[in-house]
Structures are given as structure tokens and as C-alpha cells.
Amino acid sequence: MAAKLTPCAGRALSGFTLVELLVALVLVGMISAALFTAMRYSARSWRAGEARLVDITDGDAVRHFLRARLTESMPATMPSTDRTREPVFRGDGTHLRFAAPMPHGLGLGGVYVFTLGPGEGAPLMLDWHLLRPDRLLDVSDGRQRPRPLAMAGVRAVHFRYFG
Questions:
Q1: 33: three-class secondary structure by DSSP
Q2: Of 28, 36, 118, 156, which is most buried with the most CB atoms under 10 A?
Q3: pLDDT digits (tens, 9 = 90+) for 136-150
């Protein structure tokens, strides 16, 4: 009588060996670690780039605002303490005061007195008051005043005047 063969006796078993599975798992782990590191590095680079862009954009906005206000500055007088009138424009090496309109949509209509100078924790602070014939009005609109102006890399501001 002939011996009966089992179905698997004539061929090799199909599937993966333990060594092949271990190699595959190690490779998947290494790829996952590399992807995680790359994602972390990308996120850090993205945040740094975004912070730099915000600094540049804020600095450009401050320069544009000041340039526009100074371009629109006008001669004006304001009441002084001895009941006379004094010119609004006044400045020295670290402070500047001038009269100009506020940009549309940022305040009440009329001429404002802008004051620029150093402050606590900021190289340049901006304050503003609405100029009326008899007094300066403190227009409190909920914004911090005087307001620090964000300009990256600026440690001090010096003003120079012609004439």
C-alpha cells in the first residue's frame, strides 16, 4: 500500500519567517521615526518663518502709519498752561509731537496731537489726543495708551530736525 501524503508535504509552507517580519517592523519603525522628526522640524521652521513674517509686517505697518501721519502733519496751536497758545510741533532728540488727522476708520474726525517717545519696555511709544480749540481731548477707545510700536530689531529711536 502506498503511503498517503499530507497536502503540505510536497511543497514549502507559504508565508513570512520571523526574521522577515522583524526586518519589516524595524524598517517601518525607522521610516516612522524619520517622518516624525521631519514633521517636527518642518513645524518648527514654519513657526519661525511665521514669527519673522509677523515682525516684518508689523514693522512695515508702523513705518507706513508714521510716514503717512508725518506727511499729513499740519501747523496747529494748542492751549498752554499760561492761557496762551503754543505750537503743537515740538521735538528733541528722543521725543516728537505733531498734529495730523487720524486715518479714516481709526478715530473721530478732526486733528489729533501725536506724541512719539521712548517708554517702558519699548524703544518707541505712541500717544494721541484729539485737538480742540480750547483743550486736548483724551479719546479713550479701549486701546492701550501710550501704545508701544512693534519694530523688530529697534533698540532706540533718535529724531533729527532741519533748520
A1: helix
A2: 118
A3: 877 776 666 778 887
